[in-house]
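Input record (Table S2, row 727):
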Amino acid sequence: MIIHDTEGRIFTLQTHSTTYQMKADQNGVLLHTYYGPKIQQGDLSRLIRYADRGFSPNPDEAGSDRTYSLDTLPQEYSGSGAGDFRLPSLEVERRDGSYVADLRYAGAQVLGGKYALEGLPAFFGSERDADTLVITLEDPAAALRVELLYGVFEDCDLITRAVRIINDGDQPVRLHRAASLCLDFPAASMDWVTFDGGHVKERRPNRAPLRPGVQSVGSIRGISSHQHNPFVMLCEPQADEEHGVCYGAALLYSGNFEAAAERSQFDDIRLTMGIHPFHFCWTLEPGQAFTAPEAALVCSPNGFGQMSRQFHRAVRGHLLRDPWRGRRKPVQVNSWEAFYFHYDQQRLLQFAKESAALGVELFVLDDGWFGRRNDDSSSLGDWFPNEEKLPGGLPALSAEINALGMEFGLWIEPEMVSEDSRLYREHPDWVLNAPGRPYTRGRCQLVLDYTRPEIRDYIFQTLQKQLDEANVSYIKWDMNRSLAQVWSAAIPAQRQGEVYHRYVLGVYDLLERFRQANPNTLIEGCSGGGGRFDMGMLYYTPQIWCSDNTDAIDRLTIQYGTSFAYPPSTMGAHVSAVPNEQTGRSVPFDTRGTVAMSGTFGYELDLGALSQEEKNQVIRQIQAYRESYDLIQTGDYYRLSVPTPDGQPTAWLHVSADRRTALLCVVSGQAHAGAPFRRIKLRGLDPTLRYRAAEEELWPGDMLMQAGYPLPMLGEYQCLRLWLKAE
Ligand code: DGJ
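Output record (DGJ complex):
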């Protein structure tokens, strides 16, 4: 609900458990007065105190009042160069060389339903789900208008924000920074939590008290990156899974981003998030507008768990689009870790037969099917089948797969080109590269200039031809390098600062075209695993390959970190062979299944090479996955412990909306002699109900939550998957 007090110029956004408030003060400065646990009513600007602070200057409107300073006021969208020395949201260069951005309130509008952003991912909602608030700010001297957009999803406690900057003047202006989000908090101690790592070790939570000054994470790799995720949290120092106020902020963006938190000289805190200012410079001609990507906020009064569940609900209901929003996704087998590049039609069909016999529903042909691609040094861009490997091409192969009762899926990497390819030989000028400089290669490949529509058209046409000819019901859209030498031959010198962002817009444009041309095709995002696991991609690809690390024990940490913002239904997770390719570790088959089943389940190994006992396990796992599908895909997710490398078990729980059914998953750590008897306290159950644990006795809900469930003695890396059903 949005309450607009027109007289007081107060805007109050009410969600189920939270309140967000702003007020345009007597000078037209849009103050941020509150964000936190719900408050029924009131003008929260009364909490703001004013004092004459040294070296905090006063705007002209303040006259002789030295207590009024932009440097000390909590602001909704900070300017720059006008006396606020904390993190700026907007940096603008005018024709005359001045860099000041100083915004004042100009008006507001409340609309039913959720606003949309052209060409950019955004949460969506009808008038039943959401409301929109548009607040207009102006900087008259620069002839700039800034529209702050807010989407309020009451049920999910979700508040989205986006920003449109419009040049109303008759001179061009250059944007050097246009944050999507600025959020000021009053003086308090807060912890800053980021999700960091690298390739094969994505999204590990890191938590530390916010120190004075700016702390930031971000990416200048052209992708949101394995190294830092565009999702961050701020929380009370005592906050944990169940307690304390915490704030999660996600950017729906898949390119360079920056998330920064600053603790000021007076201990108040500012969070900003948006496109990374590195190499960003966007020229706005008179009359033109720039839209900064959407940011999404959830505040939880009761710890991280509630915040995550609200994000999960919001993503499932208002970001993943039809038809896959509610459609059952197939169990897949993927050829990558089974064969890498080393396959032919006969080997694939044998693999497919074995897979179909065990109950697999989707067969995914990964890298290596096109051009002369027998390793990763060639052929990207040549999107026609290698007839030596696949006589009859994809139509023949997909027909055989379909005849086995499985759907057919295909790997592509459409943003890339290999120098050893027909495409590169014909169009060497289609790559991003700074003029006169040698290439910086990544996995031997170069990046196509997706800022150029003709290149996107070419890729669309050549790939769509393959999709039209074969019966392809799934696409894995991969992207395997960071961007470097970013320069486009199609863009004038003074506008090269637009290339990174235009590249991302090009990727979104092509994804949308493929989506619309193939409405029933499931697209899985991937960037060397989880290098582009963000809410921007989820708008186009309802699941994303979580990591190239398929070791079940490492995956516990990766999926744990990922779950803070993203629901299990979006996490690509497969059972792979042991010893594991990435770690050399051997984890029992059951455990590999339990971990992969809390994602989009599948296999990534040669099923034909398994023993009969293991094949029987595959059949049982697929059956078990089908039984738990609805619960895992739509239920509430509870993290019960933090994965650690020592002997502690890692546990999590899926609970149905009516709290009558739950699935407890536990994986034990390293084995140590004389291990303690452990109990695990469950959450989210109905304390008044009694639950039958598998075929055993009945357990009262309150006992399970307060005293815990006694774990059996599990050997090293073994698992428990226990159903609890209320009677
Ligand atoms: C990286 C992906 O993450 C893998 O799953 C696989 O598809 C390879 N690329 C193929 O080159």
